[in-house]
Amino acid sequence: MKSRLPLNLRRSAFSLVELVVVVLIIGILAAVAAPRMFNTAGDARDSATRASLGVIRDSIELYRSQNGVYPPTATFATAIKPFINGSFPRVQTTLVPSGNQNNTIVANTGNPISTPTGTAGWAYNESTGEFVINHSACLTW
């Protein structure tokens, strides 16, 4: 039995199959894009590590202004303790492997510090006062 409606009025809605296909496409796009747009935990860890770097570098300079030399590597954490509020920070950035996300410090004599060594979280050069994350992905921070 043929419909008596004109051709332009016969189909005025989407079929169920068309709606399901559109919803699936939107779901796939959301699943791919959402983790990239909402990586707030990773961004927070990166920001915390950058802030820690700033605090420690300022502490090194304060120590130097009071004592005339940079803090010794052997007692670095205790030497700058008066200038840090709280415990010595650890590396938290998502750019380094989890083995390097700690608060240990390795002495590095490179000038500037260029080669990460071991799994220490931080690298420090006592002669220049340079303090960086002990990973090649973060040496420019």
Topology:
Elements: H1 7-10, H2 16-37, H3 40-67, H4 76-79, E1 105-107, E2 122-125, E3 130-133
Parallel strand pairs: 1-2
Antiparallel strand pairs: 2-3
Q: What is the number of domains?
A: 1
Please tally the helical runs, counting DSSP H or I stretches of 4 or more residues.
Answer: 4
Summarize model confidence as the mean pLDDT: 83
Give the strand line-up of the largest sheet.
1-2-3
For the report, how would you describe the main beta sheet?
3 strands, mixed
The string of secondary-structure elements, in order, is HHHHEEE
Description:
Helices cover 41% and strands 8% of the residues. It is mainly α and 141 residues long. The chain has one domain. A three-stranded mixed sheet has the order 1-2-3, covered by helices on one side. The protein starts with 6 loop residues before the first helix and ends in an 8-residue tail after the last strand. The mean pLDDT is 83.
